[in-house]
Specification:
The complex is a heterodimer of chains A (274) and B (240). Chain A is an all-alpha fold. Chain A has 15 helices and no strands. Chain A has one domain: MetI-like (MetI-like fold), CATH 1.10.3720.10. Chain A starts with a helix and ends in a 7-residue tail after the last helix. By secondary structure, chain B is α/β, with parallel strands linked by helices. Chain B folds into two domains: 159 residues, Rossmann fold (3-Layer(aba) Sandwich); 65 residues, no CATH class. In chain B, the strands form two sheets. In chain B, strands 7-8-9-3-10-11 form a six-stranded mixed sheet, with helices on both faces. Chain B has a five-stranded antiparallel sheet with strand order 2-1-4-5-6, with helices on one face. Chain B starts with a strand and ends with a helix. Classes of the chains: A mainly alpha (274), B alpha/beta (240).
């Protein structure tokens, strides 16, 4: 329970025009979800979730989004380190290149992947010729497309954390005889741990919601490439209840992620300063 | 058997040009106004900043000599550092901090912790071994930082303003403790400070730098008796 005194001190009352416009903005975000939740067949929720088509899409999405989050961590953390600490010409251009897929229309990302890693693509044809491996229309294609779109979220989060971390702790650790790799594992990584978690969760959530790049590059096969978002979109034409239920699942997940990260995401990376 | 350094280092528009020699078991205090190049000197000796000209050698081993393309990186130098704000690793306990250098050099966990325990006993902090750095006082943190630096038996110990972060009321007793501890250290020592009292209690010799150049060096008394610049006069005026 708050005391009356702390309440009185803490609140700076906003001017009323600001309050009105802000309320409108909140309503703008809230109303679509209220509308959606109002039409959701709550009594049928578990029946619909149990339908094999929905279950297949759900399971595929879980597997591929986790795989994308792991891939983003594996490749994104070293990339973030190089962007934060590396000194080489064109670093800003490299950063722009590696985070472009955040702002690019995902369909364009999908088209780019199609013409490079597709079966007839500039690089993809060698994979097919040499290893009989193709990304398109396979689970690997889904993971590739999702990672392409999701990794920048991790890279930017982790890069900011590495920049803010006090590099003198690393100097101290190196002066004690730690190799760069040892220092990264024992000093840098623990200091940026909140950002690693936040970045991985953001990348995972983005991968879970990925639609444009995935359907363009990997296609739309139930069980192999038809993820939740794609299934939702297609269900709108056939069975609106399915679309609503899948949407509810994704809304709940996204809300939980952002709510859970509310402190960590923004205030991350204070780890090293005492 | 000693530190022999004669070098210059250019950073942006600033040039530090010095000639430093310290014998084992001897403490040299380096004093100077802010921006004189004190921290740059330590960073160069530690290997955190490569020198531009000249050479640095320790016990006859060349650590940095650009003319012969020699540069021993910081993690390979037998040099210990105590930073002004100690920089104890906040996510490790006190004993893990002290054991860090040995672990980094491949000593197994048990022997590293045993050695760290001995060092904590040396600095009188055995009962704080399992605490986190946030739970101990500034004076204690400074002793942990010293124990951590000494764990790898450096032949050159660099102390960057080790008393500056402390409260005025504790500074005096911590300074006395530090002088007793340093008496047991047989490596060459360089103490950077802006407080002449530190120099008088802790050091055998003094060196004063201004604008990247040595303006005077010698014993405390000889410098105090005959200050070479207005800054030195001002600095030592109210201490002796």
């Amino acid at each position: 329970m708050k005391t009356a005194r702390s309440t009185r001190r803490a609140h700076d009352r906003a001017p009323w025009p600001v309050v009105i416009v802000a309320t409108l903005a909140i309503a703008f975000f809230a109303l679509p979800f209220i509308g959606l939740l109002g039409r959701t067949p709550w009594s049928d929720l578990f029946n619909v979730l149990g339908e094999s088509r929905v279950r297949t899409a759900l399971w595929l999405s879980i597997r591929t989004s986790v795989a994308s989050a792991i891939a983003s961590l594996t490749f994104g953390v070293p990339l973030a380190w190089v962007l934060a600490r590396g000194r080489f010409p064109g670093r800003s251009a490299v950063r722009a290149l590696c985070t472009m897929s955040m702002v690019l229309p995902p369909v364009v990302g999908g088209v780019a992947l199609f013409f490079s890693f597709g079966r007839q693509g500039v690089f993809g044809r060698f994979l097919d010729d040499w290893f009989s491996f193709q990304f398109t229309f396979s689970v690997w294609g889904v993971i590739l497309a999702q990672t392409f779109v999701a990794m920048p979220y991790l890279v930017l989060t982790v890069e900011a954390a590495i920049r803010q971390a006090d590099a003198r702790f690393e100097d101290a650790a190196r002066s004690l005889g730690g190799s760069r790799w040892y220092v990264f594992r024992r000093i840098t990584a623990p200091a940026i741990r909140p950002a690693l978690i936040a970045g991985a969760v953001l990348a995972w959530a983005r991968a879970l919601g990925e639609f444009g790049a995935t359907i363009t590059f990997a296609g739309n096969f139930p069980g192999t490439t038809q993820t939740m978002s794609i299934a939702t979109y297609l269900a709108l034409d056939t069975d609106a209840r399915e679309a609503l239920v899948l949407s509810v699942v994704m809304i709940a997940t996204s809300f939980a992620v952002l709510f859970g990260l509310r402190d960590r995401w923004m205030g991350a990376a204070t780890g090293m300063t005492r | 058997m000693t530190l022999d350094a004669r070098f210059s280092i250019v950073r942006h528009t600033f040039t530090l040009d010095v000639d430093v020699h310290v014998a084992p078991g001897e403490t040299l205090a380096v004093l100077g106004p802010n921006g004189a190049g004190k921290t740059t000197l330590l960073r160069a000796l530690a290997g955190l900043a490569p020198i531009t000209n000249g050479s640095i050698s320790l016990d006859g081993t060349v650590l940095d000599e650009p003319d012969h393309s020699v540069f021993v990186p910081v993690e390979k130098r037998p040099v210990g550092l105590v930073f002004q704000d100690y920089l104890l690793f906040p996510h490790m306990t006190v004993i893990e901090n002290v054991a860090f250098g040995l672990r980094a050099r491949g000593t197994v966990r048990e022997s590293a912790r045993a050695r760290a325990g001995e060092l904590l006993e040396w600095v009188g902090l055995s009962e704080h071994a399992e605490k986190k750095p946030g739970q101990i006082s500034g004076g204690q943190a400074q002793r942990v930082a010293l124990a951590r630096a000494m764990a790898v038996s450096p032949r050159l110990l660099l102390l960057d303003e080790p008393l500056a972060a402390l409260d005025v009321t504790t500074r005096r007793s911590v300074r006395t403790d530090l002088s007793h501890l340093l008496a047991n250290v047989d490596s060459a020592r360089i103490l950077v400070t802006h407080d002449p009292r530190d120099a008088r209690v802790l050091a055998d010799r003094m060196m004063i730098i201004e604008n990247g150049r040595i303006v005077q060096s010698g014993s405390f008394d000889s410098i105090a008796a005959n200050p070479a610049t207005p800054y030195v006069h001002e600095l030592l005026g109210d201490v002796s």
